[in-house]
Amino acid sequence: MSLSKKIKDLLHNQPPKTENQDDPAAAISGDGLVRFHLLFSGRVQQVGFRYEAQQLAITLKLTGWVKNLFNGQVEMEIQGQPEKIESLINQLSTVGWIRIDRVERQQLPVDRQEKQFIVTG
């Protein structure tokens, strides 16, 4: 299965995992925005991953944050239209020096206060 297909399945076909399973509105807003917590594994540190992600997020009008973890993974929370999030992940996977082997995700409630995408840690 191609990475593009895996990403599409990841964002569209799996049942949402939210903090509050009894409140579906907590995961998907009325305007179609979604928010995901993502963990990327592979060659994702010391290759410009976070800054590539930030530039793509700004271009795609996505909000959230991204940071390196001590275990070699990159952690991200990202919010926006599902197809734009899919586009960001697909574009990151085409950068020659980045290799995404695995993406774990958890759907989160939308954060209406968030206005930008930042690199932390």
Automatic annotation (TrEMBL):
Pfam families: Acylphosphatase (PF00708). InterPro entries: Acylphosphatase, Acylphosphatase-like_dom, Acylphosphatase-like_dom_sf, Acylphosphatase_CS. It comes from Oenococcus kitaharae DSM 17330. Residues 35-121 form the Acylphosphatase-like domain. It is an enzyme of class 3 (hydrolase). The active site is at R50, N68. Belongs to the acylphosphatase family. The keyword Hydrolase applies. It catalyses: an acyl phosphate + H2O = a carboxylate + phosphate + H(+). Keywords: Hydrolase. Its EC number is 3.6.1.7. This is acylphosphatase. One of its GO terms (molecular function) is acylphosphatase activity.
